[in-house]
């Protein structure tokens, strides 16, 4: 009788209970898209937006005496020859150049201005933040075509306590924050390039600690 009891329960476990457990596990793992789902997205990085701390090279063609190299102040404004307290933060270099031309037109006939960003810091909203079990958690200035691997190199990789494949990328798309699972162990430790993705301004990468 005892043998029949265990055989009967083994049958129910193998054919009914075990498949249910496996299904629940797979469903839980699929709750967040894996890295390839991010890589196929079509979002394009916007034009660079000037932020406090950025170093600017301002060229006024034919007027080298009023060309200058300046830093954007913490309040987002700049001072340059013939110009005081001009808002720079929040503008593209082309937009700032146009505003400088308008200011200089009072003193210079038909000024032509070019603005180049030589030292990048960027606004906080455009920086990439890495938190958790990175060797050097920090906020990074976004650079065009920056990838997840580039970010991991800059933060010194993972700590020995990191659960890299449980890491989460938080990205704001059309004003809505979305979460994606990324596979940092596969990328950093195993060299699986399929786990690499393109980063966008404002991305937040959270690397959790391993349970054991």
From TrEMBL:
Gene Ontology molecular functions: polysaccharide transmembrane transporter activity; porin activity
Domain Polysaccharide export protein N-terminal: 44-117
Membrane association type: Multi-pass membrane protein
Chain segments annotated as transmembrane: 12-28
Residue intervals of the SLBB domain: 128-207
InterPro entries named in the record: PEP-CTERM_polysacc_export, Poly_export, Poly_export_N, SLBB_dom
UniProt main location, coarse: membrane
Pfam families named in the record: Poly_export, SLBB_2
Keywords of the record: Cell outer membrane, Ion transport, Lipoprotein, Membrane, Palmitate, Polysaccharide transport, Porin, Signal, Sugar transport, Transmembrane, Transmembrane beta strand, Transmembrane helix, Transport
Range of residues in the leader sequence: none
Source species, domain of life: Bacteria
Protein localization: Cell outer membrane
A cellular component term, taken from the record's GO annotations: pore complex
UniProt similarity note: Belongs to the BexD/CtrA/VexA family.
Protein name per Swiss-Prot or TrEMBL: Polysaccharide export protein, PEP-CTERM sytem-associated
Classification lineage: Bacteria, Pseudomonadati, Pseudomonadota, Gammaproteobacteria, Chromatiales
């Amino acid at each position: 009788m005892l043998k029949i009891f265990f055989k009967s329960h083994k049958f129910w476990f193998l054919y009914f209970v075990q498949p249910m457990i496996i299904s629940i596990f797979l469903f839980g793992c699929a709750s967040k898209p894996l890295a390839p789902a991010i890589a196929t997205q079509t979002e394009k990085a916007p034009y660079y937006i000037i932020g406090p701390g950025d170093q600017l090279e301002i060229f006024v063609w034919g007027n080298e005496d009023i060309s200058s190299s300046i830093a954007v102040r913490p309040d987002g404004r700049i001072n340059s020859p013939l110009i005081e307290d001009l808002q720079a933060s929040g503008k593209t270099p082309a937009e700032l150049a146009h505003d400088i031309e308008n200011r200089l037109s009072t003193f210079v006939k038909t000024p032509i201005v070019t603005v180049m960003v030589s030292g990048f810091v960027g606004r906080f909203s455009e920086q990439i933040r890495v938190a958790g079990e990175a060797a050097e958690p920090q906020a990074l200035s976004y650079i065009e075509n920056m990838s997840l691997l580039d970010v991991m190199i800059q933060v010194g990789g993972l700590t020995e306590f990191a659960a890299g494949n449980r890491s989460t990328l938080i990205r704001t798309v059309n004003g809505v924050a979305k979460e994606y699972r990324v596979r940092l162990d596969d990328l950093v430790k195993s060299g699986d390039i399929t786990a690499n993705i393109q980063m966008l301004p404002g991305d937040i990468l959270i690397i959790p600690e391993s349970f054991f």
